[in-house]
Amino acid sequence: MFRPVDSKVNFPQLEKTILSFWKQHQIFEKSLETRRGATQFTLYEGPPTANGSPGIHHVLSRVFKDVIPRHRTMKGYYVPRKAGWDTHGLPVELEVEKMLGFTGKAQIEEYGVAKFNALCRESVFKYLKEWDAMTERIGFWLDLEHAYRTLENSYIESCWWALKQLWDKNLIYQGYRVTPHCPRCGTSLSSHEVALGYRDDAKDPSVYIKFKLARSSVDNLKLPVALPPSDKPVFLLAWTTTPWTLPGNTALAVASEAHYSIMEGSEDYLILAAALAERIGLDGYKSIATVSGKDLVGLEYQPLFNPHDFDVERGRFGDRPSEENLSYEILTPQKADTDLTYRVIPGDFVSMEEGTGIVHIAPAFGEVDFEAGKSEGLDFVQPVDLDGKMTGTYPFAGKFVKDADPLVLEDLKSRGLLYRSEQIVHTYPFCWRCEAPLVYYAKRTWYIRTSLKKEALLAGNAEINWYPEHIKYGRFGNWLENNVDWAFSRERYWGTPLNIWNCSSCGSYECIGSLDELKAKPNLEGLIEPLDLHRPFVDDIAFSCSKCGGRMKRQAEVIDCWFDSGAMPFAQWHYPFENQDTFKRNFPADYISEAVDQTRGWFYSLHAISTLIFDRPCFNNVICLGHILDAEGDKMSKAKGNVVDPWSVLDKYGADALRWYLFTAAPAGNVRRFSSDAVSEVLRNFLLTLWNVYSFFVIYANIDRFDPKSAGTPALSDLDRWILSRLNQLVADVDGALDNYDPTSAGRKIEGFVDELSNWYVRRSRRRFWKSQSDADKLAAYSTLYNCLVTLSKLLAPFTPFIAEEIYRNLVCPVEPEAVESVHMADFPVADLSQVDEKLIEATRLAMTVCSLGRAARAKSGIKVRQPLSIALVKVRSAGEKEALQKLTYQILEELNVKELEFCEGEEVSDRPGYVSAAEGDYWVAVATELSPELEAEGVAREVVRRLQTMRRSAGLDIADHILTYYEGGDSIQLAMTKFADYIKQETLSQELIAAVSPVGSHTEKFRISNYEISLGIKKAS
């Protein structure tokens, strides 16, 4: 006997019971132990930061991380799954700053770095219990007890070792160059961090600025015709969206081969690209001459803002020393000059697609500008500090750069230098953590020469299997193609400290690769036990310079937290200091999965570090997930109030429903529109359908005391052979899809099968289960459905681990004492392709199509399916299809509730009186609508059966209880009850049909059936 199964199920409650079973019996641990020694399959867990509550997007990535390891475990692999926590970086610091009410680094310094970092350490585990609870609740099996944590000294030491490897390979340097800088956080950001924060709805000024040519340059302007004698000034017209950078302007760039128009107005002349003049629309100006860009090169113009007038220093680029000397200075200070002029330079970066064809160059604020400054020996002016505020004595001094924009324009307008001001909506980078607008800022930063290894990075990517495949050479491949050096140092506090020491005397640098190396340094000071390798304690460690004997002090920066997470393949094992064999067994990973933005984040840092250190990729297969949006297709955010709390979904619908939705709603790489209603629909359409089949089987199997072990090998009907063919086909399809990292296709295949199992096999087999005699046909039906449900439990185990466990433990464990105690310890099903009858599958598919059209024709006519009809006419495409369907005629007759099936050839007979038809492609079905008295009586009998079955449930009768049925009605009712008495009795377990008033104590209801009044009463038989 199987444990009774209620048709009404509370999935969340069921799942909690199963969670208790897993925990009590250590099923996860046993599932690992039973496979220990087998071929290993390795998952790398991308470490989340536990300083905030997990969201629905975290559930998405975690269930996709779970499904493949579960499948591989059932396939016989040993699949260790080590959890990890990312504990450093801006995400943590900003959370603590918010808690303290801080708005910048100065407040942290005043508060004390030690106290601040202590709060950071606490913060990263603030929500750890919530993360653990969510991980457990959704059925993500992970070794949380032995999780790696990036803040541990052992992890930091492994990161130091990695950086020392790069240092020894000359892949680390300190560069003075333009880098993305967050003025709010006060630190550089890497290119992949910048990529995480772009917005395409940024609003900025779009302004055209006039730069006045020096008198000497006007006289030297090479024109085909001389300008008429005039005192009109000549201006170069440039365009920008960052007015705040204009005080830093030291050059204008033109395209040497382009043509530039001299436009005359009533008060001045403007020079701009001829190709863009019409697009800009210069009202009141006409072109009087055209010159080439190379004729403009070398012309001098007056600065918009002479830096010396506003107490801002001016430097000049000189010859660049070799990069081996990391302390080089590349700017030479310049003396004050009241007659200062800047010049026009050539630039191959000048576009003729937008702007004016003249580019404003501010070497302090743009990478292209900075490189132009170096190559052309330009002046360098920095009017902005690291907090993003204007310096000097400008009218807008002290203002944040974006707030200074209107003040800069107001000043220029007052001097007649603003030609036009508009607004533009464009793409602009913001800090990926604090959301402040970034500035591109020239300063010293430490870099990893990833650009030097571009070909190796591309070659390694070619070895990785990406799902979806287009990411490989698309989003990720393009990122690698345009690779720039990794700015990996951060002017912050809570992170892995940069392991580079600098001599205050001779300027030399040393990179420390281990604690032993550090402890061996001469005259070591500041190393305090117990050791904490974080700021400010590590800042106090000093030792003697090996070159001059001076004092070596650590560089103040910490490193990019993306380096931390990218080092996890080895740092989680404290490699190479211990666990070398363990590392080798777990490297590279067979599988990783995260959202698509990690192509710029964790996927990239993993790939870059592994390639630079180990000369190979560190993961072989990756599922790249699309983002989750709300039901309207908008990004979820707390500000919009459209964030979905995963716990609300889990508590209402359960983890299996949520998991199934996430797997099947869209292919892995596609965007998903999420709503609770969508999860509810999945629960109704799939999980409840499966549950109803399971409940149906258990109820009737228990009534008939079906024993799978004594069933033997019964003779199978066509219906049995068909569903077993589909079952084995399904096993092959699901296994293949999961082998190819495609849970969506696998899930949808299962969904289709369950629909066929419920709505074709079980419905077509109901009478086989209901009939009282236990013959071979009934045994075959039980055996077949049992086989399907047990196999489904194993196929579903990686996807919906809870309902799979419930079905397996109830159907398998009671009858097979030698069976493993959990479906997750069982072997994954293996398809028996010899049982797949392709012709039968195709014939049944045709039968389903015919029945679908027949039901559509019935719906047109308004005749219910319970009302038998005399005949259905069917037209198919070929004689072969006709022959295949003829073998399944009995199934079609039952499904359509018709007495006869006739195949038509030639023209359709849709206009024949008394018929209603439906068609799809080459298929056509018509049903006769005329009802004989006998057909009408049978229809009444079927309707009576339906009402009696509903009454049985309302009366609280058990499904096996026999009843006495009482009825009152006219002649038509009497005819139906008499003529079809045996049918009614069999279907409703009625011992007698009694034409009499229902006795006291019976359950009585009145109905109208086919316009006939009937009173029905039922009473449990004694």
Silhouette: elongated
Q: Determine the number of helices (DSSP H or I, runs of at least 4 residues).
A: 35
The number of strands is 38
Range of strand content: 15-25%
**Main sheet?**
6 strands, mixed
What is the CATH homology-level superfamily of the domain at 198-429? Answer: Valyl/Leucyl/Isoleucyl-tRNA synthetase, editing domain
Unreliably modeled segments: 321-328
What's the N-to-C terminus distance? 25 Å
Q: What is the helix fraction of residues, given as a range?
A: 25-40%
The CATH top-level class label of the domain at 198-429? Alpha Beta
Chain-averaged pLDDT: 92
Structural class by SSE content: alpha+beta
Q: Based on the structure given, which CATH architecture of the domain at 198-429 is correct? A: Alpha-Beta Complex
Radius of gyration: 39 Å
Strand order within the widest beta sheet: 10-8-9-6-5-17
CATH topology of the domain at 198-429: Isoleucyl-tRNA Synthetase, domain 2
Question: Can you characterise this structure?
Answer:
Residues 321-328 have low confidence and may be disordered. It contains 35 helices and 38 strands. Helices cover 39% and strands 20% of the residues. Among the domains are: 198-429, Valyl/Leucyl/Isoleucyl-tRNA synthetase, editing domain (Isoleucyl-tRNA Synthetase, domain 2, Alpha-Beta Complex); 671-820, Isoleucyl-tRNA Synthetase, Domain 1, CATH 1.10.730.10; 840-931; 934-1020, hypothetical protein PF0899 fold. The longest helix has 28 residues, at 676-703. Strand 33 (915-920) and strand 34 (923-928) form a beta hairpin. It is elongated and about 120 Å long.
